Amino acid sequence: MTTRIRSATEQDEAAVVALWRDCGLVVGNSDPVRDFRAVRGGPTSDILAAFDANDVLIGSIAVGYDSNRGWLHYVSVDPVRRGKGAGRDLVHAAEQWLITRDVVDVHLTVRSANAAVARFYEAIGYGTVPSIMMEKTLRRPE
Amino acid sequence: MSVTVDLCSPGDLASIDALWREAFPDDKLRHRAQNAVPAKLAFQPDLFLVARDGGRVVGSIIAGYDGYRGHINRVAVLKAHRRQGVGVLLVREAEARLRALGCTKINLQIRAANQAVVSFYHALGYDVEEHISMAKLIASGDLPEAP
Q1: What number is the ipTM of this complex?
Q2: CA distance A64 to chain B (A)
Q3: Nearest partner of B75 among B51, B52, B97, judged by Cα
């Protein structure tokens, strides 16, 4: 399969957001359009998208770094296009994006309900970190 | 108590080193002050905060924004200055700065062995999320570790 991976553009927004919804990644009060616009082409983040030979979107990944480490979010492959390495290629492209920015390690979190996905990451070199994750939603700036 | 929250400056290196050695005795080399302080002062330095009592550094916090989520690391208070609200001051100021950057959600990771601090963050509005954390080393250096 010929897969081409590049940074997503504004024109990819609708397709990428639809993909995230198809993949069940839009849960709770998350706002995928806001996330796409905030992450894409940001100073410390980007969204990479994978396309097939016909320029049809296959998958996407959000990558960014804080001062401490790199992070992957919204790792998504079209459910009918899975099992052909697109996810692996997207993660690899995101890792390269981080390496060129001198990031040493990359982290991600998997929802417990989605635990089967952990096996995918283990197969491409990720290990489980014994940690407790806590989260807080911030009010919008006044 | 006259503790104030302030930006970290290069002159704080030695006192931050002492603070972190007390709070994080198992730190890997790349997380030690000599490496991490210059790195943070070069990247999002306005998210590197210290608490000062008089002139003395008694606490630290490093926030980061990856464009999607805010992160909080290196929350430390000198043992002799704990239980006086210093940590709360640091977290609140970091939250305000992340919010000003457009951040809508903060994730933080606590070492599994450090369960005791869960109640500290819970009181500040953080909830435990049932997640699996995964990590990979992508460049040479120390092995990845729990934050």
Answers
A1: 0.89
A2: 5
A3: B51
